[in-house]
Design brief:
The structure is a homotrimer of 178-residue chains. Chain A contains three helices and six strands. By secondary structure, chain A is of the alpha+beta class. Chain A has one domain: Nuclear Transport Factor 2, Chain: A (Roll). Chain A has a six-stranded mixed β-sheet with strand order 2-1-6-5-4-3. The longest helix of chain A is centred in the first third of the chain and has 25 residues.
Chain lengths: 178, 178, 178
C-alpha cells in the first residue's frame, strides 16, 4: 500500500501543476505560469516552440489579444515512473478565447487540444520538463444574443481582483458577497 | 505521509460534493443540491445572492425554464487548511442549458464560469460555506440539424427515472439494458 | 485510514479506465478500448446495445466516418462498494466529432452524455461490467473561419504517430520537439 500512496501523492502534485497552469493563464499571472515549468523546461505550442523564458515572453502579448481566456481541463491520465522521477501526463483541454474582431464583432475562438507532458521530479517537486500541445480541432464563431450579464453577476477578472484570491478570508455567514 | 493521506481524503470529500451538486441540479434532485451546503451557507449566483434555503427556492423555477441542463465540471484546484478545517476550491464549469424560445426554436445557452468556494469541515464532514460563481462567458445559439436521437438511445432524465440510480443493481451479464 | 486509502486506490484504478477509454477511441486503438471492459461486459450506446466484442466491431467503422474525435470527460463521481467488489461511476462527457459532410463542408457534431457504469473488481482489477450512455444533448454546426492550423502545430493523430506515446523518451533539455 505504501507504493500506492506514493503514486497518489505524486499524481496529486502533478494534477495541481496542471490546474495551476490554467489559473495562471486565465488570471494573467505569468509568474504562476512560469512556476509550472522547470527553468530548462520547454513548450511546443505550435505558435511558439522553445524554452520557458521565451514562452512567457510569447504568451503575454498573445493573451492580451483576447478579452478573456478559459483553459478548461478534462481527462487527466498520468503515468508516474517513481524510481526515475519522471511522469507522462496527457490532459485534454478546451481553450475558450473571447475577443473582438477588427469590425468590433465579439467572437469565440475555441480550440480542442491535449497537453502532452513529461514531468520531472527534482528535490521532491514535480514540474513540467517538456510540454507538447497536440491540437485536435479549432473553430471561431461570432457571439450573438444572450451573451451579456446583469450588473449583479460576479465576473472572472485578470489580476488580483478575482474572487478566487480572497475566498478563504473569513466572512460573516449568510452575508453573501460581504 | 500521514498528512498527505489526510489531504487526499479531504480533497476526495470536497470533490464528491462538487460533483454531487451537478448531479442534484441536472437530475432536479433539490435535496441533493441542498446537502452540498451547510445550513448557514451562502451562494452568489449573480441572479441570486443569499442563503441556501432561498437558493433552493430560486433554483427550482429557474431550472424548470430549461428542457435540460448539464453542469459540466473541469479543473478542480483545492487548497485545504487542515488545522482550521477550511478549504478553497476553484472549479471550472461549462453549464449547458437547452430550452425552447418563445417561437418554439430550440436554443442552447452555454455559460463558462468558475465555482469559487469556501468549504468548511464540521464534525468531520465537508460542505460549502460560501459559494461565488465567477462568470467568464456566455453565448446562446439556435439548435439546427443533427440534434435528435433515435428511440433506442437512453436519455438522461430528471427525477428517479434516470439510469444513474439503478446501475448498481445486479443484471445478468451480457443482457445489456436488461 | 486504511479503508480510506483502499477507496482512493480503487477510485484511482477506475478513473484510469475511464480516461483510457477516451485515449483508445480518440487514438483509434481498439484493443485499448477493449481492455476497459470485462470480456462479458456490455455497452448500451443507443446506436449499439450488446457485448463488448460486438461493440468493438461496431465502433471501428463508426469512428472512421469522422476525421477525428475528442471524448472529453468532466465530472467523475464514483461510489465503490469495497466488500462486493463493485462500483458505480457517473462520468460527464462531451464528445466532439469532426467530419466532412456529403457536400464537403466541415461539420462538428457534439454530444453531451454521461457514461453510467457498473464496474467490477476481479482478481484485483477494475473494469467495466456494464455501460449505459445516457445522452443529454447533441448539436451539429458547420465549421467556418479560423479552424486551420499552421504547419508548425503538432496535431493529434490516430495510431502510433501521436506524441502521447514517445513523450517519456529522454530528450535533451531545451531542444523542444527534438
Amino acid at each position: 500500500m505504501d507504493e500506492q500512496l506514493e503514486l497518489l501523492v505524486a499524481e496529486r502534485a502533478i494534477h495541481r501543476v496542471l490546474c495551476t497552469y490554467s489559473r495562471g493563464v486565465d488570471r494573467f499571472d505569468l509568474e504562476l505560469v512560469r512556476s509550472c515549468y522547470w527553468p530548462d523546461g520547454t513548450d511546443d505550442h505550435g505558435s511558439y516552440i522553445g524554452g520557458v523564458d521565451g514562452f512567457i515572453e510569447f504568451v503575454a502579448p498573445a493573451l492580451q489579444r483576447f478579452d478573456r481566456t478559459n483553459h478548461f481541463l478534462g481527462n487527466i491520465l498520468i503515468d508516474v515512473d517513481l524510481p526515475n522521477g519522471a511522469a507522462r501526463a496527457e490532459t485534454y483541454a478546451v481553450a475558450y478565447h473571447r475577443f473582438h474582431d477588427a469590425d468590433g464583432q465579439e467572437q469565440d475562438m475555441v480550440a480542442g487540444l491535449r497537453y502532452v507532458d513529461r514531468f520531472e521530479r527534482r528535490e521532491g517537486e514535480w514540474r513540467i520538463a517538456r510540454r507538447v500541445c497536440a491540437f485536435e480541432w479549432r473553430r471561431t464563431d461570432p457571439v450573438g444574443q444572450g451573451s451579456s450579464f446583469a450588473d449583479t453577476y460576479t465576473r472572472g477578472v485578470r489580476g488580483s481582483g478575482d474572487v478566487v484570491w480572497p475566498i478563504l478570508e473569513t466572512t460573516p455567514a449568510g452575508t453573501g458577497r460581504g
